[in-house]
Specification:
Strand order of the largest sheet: 6-5-4-3-2-1-14
Helix content: 25-40%
Order of helices and strands: HEEEHEHHEHEEEEEHEHEHHEE
Distance between the termini: 45 Å
Largest sheet: 7 strands, mixed
Strand content: 25-35%
Structural class: alpha/beta
Shape: globular
Number of strands: 14
Length: about 290
């Protein structure tokens, strides 16, 4: 009896969560924290983009699959994932994404996933290591390398993705230093979706590394993990060449996490109006 009641309650919660998810074109923040110690209520960097009925994900910080599922996002519908660089707070949740996608497909559809999930990454070796790890966890019952799990794509400067619904351009930055083995290992993205130009910084050494993308930008999602947010706002506002219509801070560092009111006040003053500050589960309409 208790088990039945719990199952009904769980199903009701799942339905209410799914019903609350907007069907419009929007961004959902799955993780808003930089690579600090665990912070209550915040997972590491990750967000999804819903555009014209298609679902895409950027970054894969720890816990992102949990946040997605409990916010009514069906990860089996993902078209692709884009990971800016190889640090743990940007890809530590990747094993769980693969696991949840396979689990949900097998449990509710009674079938395996039809095609591999494209992963665009600056460091393909990590995805291969994740697939090996998952296969070892299954005790040879399932080989994640042969189970339509992932197709891996090396990110380079220029257009990396265009499926007719969204288009993504990548530009390298100096967050992890220079080239390694002839390849850049850290990138920022410009996403064209639903008539909007969205710029996602990833992690950057300097906001000027985004210069090419900021001359015409509807939404700038920029990290605070390595910068003072009011300094970023001040720098952008002073540059007459840049046109940033909406400023959203993501991937929060200690300044904003430890002193949120003071940090936001100083940032809003520098920006000249209210900026937005990401939190887990936040919906941003396009």
């Amino acid at each position: 009896m208790k088990k039945s009641v719990l199952m009904i309650a769980a199903a009701s919660v799942a339905l209410s969560i799914a019903a609350a998810v907007p069907q419009s074109n929007h961004i959902c923040i799955l993780g808003s924290c930089a690579g600090t110690e665990p912070i209550p209520g915040r997972r590491h960097s990750a967000w999804t983009l819903q555009c014209n009925g298609k679902l895409y994900q950027f970054e894969a910080g720890e816990g992102c699959a949990y946040t997605a599922h409990t916010n009514g996002i069906d990860l089996t519908q993902l078209q692709a994932i884009f990971i800016s660089h190889y640090h743990m707070d940007h890809n530590g949740g990747l094993p769980h994404i693969f696991y949840v996608r396979n689990k949900m497909a097998a449990r509710f559809r009674k079938t395996l996933l039809a095609k591999p999930l494209p992963i665009y990454t600056a460091y393909p070796q990590q995805v291969n290591a994740v697939l090996d790890f998952l296969s070892s966890c299954s005790l040879n019952k399932r080989d994640f390398r042969k189970n339509n799990t992932a197709s891996i794509h090396q990110i380079k400067d220029g257009t990396i993705f265009d499926d007719g619904t969204i288009k993504i351009e990548a530009i390298h930055n100096m967050h992890v230093g220079g080239m390694q083995n002839g390849l850049w290992r850290s990138f920022s993205f410009k996403i064209n979706a639903a008539g909007k130009k969205i710029v996602f910084s990833g992690d950057v050494r300097n906001v000027h590394e985004l210069d090419k993308f900021l001359t015409d930008c509807d939404i700038l999602m920029i990290e605070t993990g390595h910068h003072k947010p009011w300094k970023i706002a001040e720098t952008i506002r002073k540059n007459s060449r840049w046109q940033v219509r909406k400023l959203i801070f993501v991937h929060h560092g200690r300044d904003l996490l430890n002193n949120p009111q003071e940090s936001m006040l100083k940032t809003n003053q520098a920006w000249g109006k209210e900026a937005e500050y990401a939190f887990d589960g936040m919906i941003i309409e396009l």
